[in-house]
């Protein structure tokens, strides 16, 4: 049973994916702790790797038209195992929501509101997220289009303003990185920046034109990638190797950008704008978790679950990490492997099981 009643256009889906990718901008500290000079180029190789898994997602969606991720699990694995797999996905989506909310709270508290308890910031952001989830997918998609344009414009403007402070020598030598660190950095970017967008399989059946699915996803990924590349170039060019020792390299760069005597300390303005993208990222995760749980429980509407899930998220947001440094350490060493199981391994296994059970042949016969 589908709980998503709203239908959105392909362009809305593309922009929603784009703003979701942009929301990973505060995660840049993770990769800069490993290397600082080659992030922009490595992000391109990561996107190329992820596109192979996008093919898997698209194949699954086209093999089971009209069914989202939870629905196709029941078909491929059967009622009982399918629900167990769906339960694992929902668990991951809740934990992912908690981790991203904590990341945003730590950024705000660590850079601007040092005396404010983390839980207070979490309540404010979660209140707005709950409102967005209650409004539904169509409203979120419309907001996502607006926020994508705003964030993209401000990212481009700040990049242009930072050009005078960028040192070309900070980019040299390129790929002065060990093979292990290159693989680690690719793994982090592929999973955290791109891979966790697998949850859009929950929304793909709501697209009006399914035949343009691949084009819409590709546009969203590339559009979000451009903002991440500009941010990486700006951080590397301005800070150089100093980016690797900062818990918030982006904020450090923003503090150095000004418009002469007219506007200074622009990080307050830009951080507020960039928060739009992180807000949408969290809202998408939250909505996917709520829809999935409602479908798993056989409910007619997801809305009765919005507040209970908010209570769970709020209860976990403080104890999930002791300090911001612990979250960064987890994001570098542990989280990419944990995330890979859900973003890459399970979808590939699902596709293989569907192949072994003959769903491809059945689909060809139906189309023939």
- Given this structure, which CATH class is correct? Mainly Alpha
Q: Can you tell me the CATH superfamily?
A: Amino acid/polyamine transporter I
User: How large is the count of helical segments?
Assistant: 15
- Arithmetic mean of pLDDT: 86
CATH A-level architecture: Up-down Bundle
Percent helix: over 70%
**How many E-type strands?**
0
Main sheet overview: none
Q: List segments where confidence is low: pLDDT < 50 over at least 5 consecutive residues.
A: none
Number of domains: 1
Please state the overall shape, judged from the principal axes of the Cα atoms.
Answer: globular
- State the secondary-structure class: mainly alpha
Could you provide a short overview of the structure?
With 368 residues, the chain is mostly helical.
Describe this structure in words.
- By secondary structure, this protein is mainly alpha-helical.
- The longest helix has 33 residues.
- 43% of the residues are buried.
- The radius of gyration is 20 Å and the shape is globular.
- The protein has a single domain, classed as Amino acid/polyamine transporter I (Up-down Bundle).
- The protein has 15 helices and no strands.
- The model has no long low-confidence stretch (mean pLDDT 86).
- The two termini are 27 Å apart.
- α3 packs across α8, α5 packs across α6 and α7 runs parallel beside α9.
